[in-house]
Amino acid sequence: MPVTRTSESYRRRSLLSGVPQGAAALRRVAVALAGLVAVTVFGTVGYMLLGLSFIEALYQTVFTVATVGYSEVYERTAAAEIFTIILIVIGVGTVLYNLGVLVEAVTEGHLREYLWRRKMDTSIEQLRDHLIVCGYGRVGRASTANLVDRGHQVVVIDSDAERLAGIEVPFVVGDASSDDVLRAAGIDRARALICALDTDAATTYATLSARALRPDLVIISRARTIDSKAKLVLAGATRAVNPQLIGGRRMASFALYADVAEFLDEVMHDDDIEHRIEGVRLGNRSPLVGRTVAGVDVPGLCGATLLAVRKPRKGEFVPTPAGEMVLEAGATLIVFGTPDQVDRLRGEAGTLAS
């Protein structure tokens, strides 16, 4: 059945307002069934007061309300006939209302939509250490595809239901700056959040909301202009990224250093390449803290190559660090190796990925 533009617009508005039509349809079904039960109880009690047994009264009520038209099981008195007329008027109206509500819920898909949404919400509630992508435009779509290809669990937030049609990852339709929407996406259990909304203002509001809910969350925000990068960091972004600036720099790198740029591009983004450049951050209780680079011997420890060390609290990078350099808590080891080698280093360091 084709959906008119009016009904589709109404459906989107009701999703964004937080009152899905599916929930309203389920409530109408519940009210209708409650009315049917009330009429059945009313009829059964009434016939019992007229002298029928419970089974006889229930039987008489059911076929009267259902308009089946079997012969009466009661003695035909004026009181019984008046009560039956009242029951028919009330009962038939209730049955017709029930049929109308059920047909509407099934044919318009509201009930199916509600049950599907509940299933989606349940799947999101079970996620742990996932990533949230706010905005499913070109940048959000590319980020989601890359994360999924690398085996990560992703939840997408977007205010436009049409953008999310056919998406294969869990999603929430709503305003990414809303605390309720962020909680529905599981922000309290998320590993990181990528914010790439249509405007810098929307991205800033969503970043502020996410940072207020999770002070420790890694938040990567897309900046449409260079000037907005600093503002997004002030709003709480761990890092603000300008895709145009990065794209321009990469194009220049390919023009000047094609082989180097292509190698780094494949290492960072090509799933067919086994080796990766990854970071391992040292926690306060890591056994590597306080030891020298030479004493740790990363290649001998796990087989990976140590490229650089970043000092704590987003400090400077030290490429090819000297052997006598002492590793501090909060420092990040930038290594080049296979996933197994990096996992062994994390195991030795007792840390998670940076």
UniProtKB/TrEMBL annotation:
Pfam families: Ion_trans_2 (PF07885), TrkA_C (PF02080), TrkA_N (PF02254). Residues 128-242 form the RCK N-terminal domain. It is found in: Cell membrane. InterPro entries: K_chnl_dom, NAD(P)-bd_dom_sf, RCK_C, RCK_C_sf, RCK_N, Trk_Ktr_HKT_K-transport. The keyword Transmembrane helix applies. GO terms for biological process: monoatomic ion transmembrane transport. The keyword Amino-acid biosynthesis does not apply. It is a multi-pass membrane protein. Residues 265-351 form the RCK C-terminal domain. Keywords: Ion channel, Ion transport, Membrane, Transmembrane, Transmembrane helix, Transport. The chain crosses the membrane at residues 44-70, 82-103. SUPFAM superfamilies: NAD(P)-binding Rossmann-fold domains, TrkA C-terminal domain-like, Voltage-gated potassium channels. It comes from the Bacteria. This is Potassium channel protein.
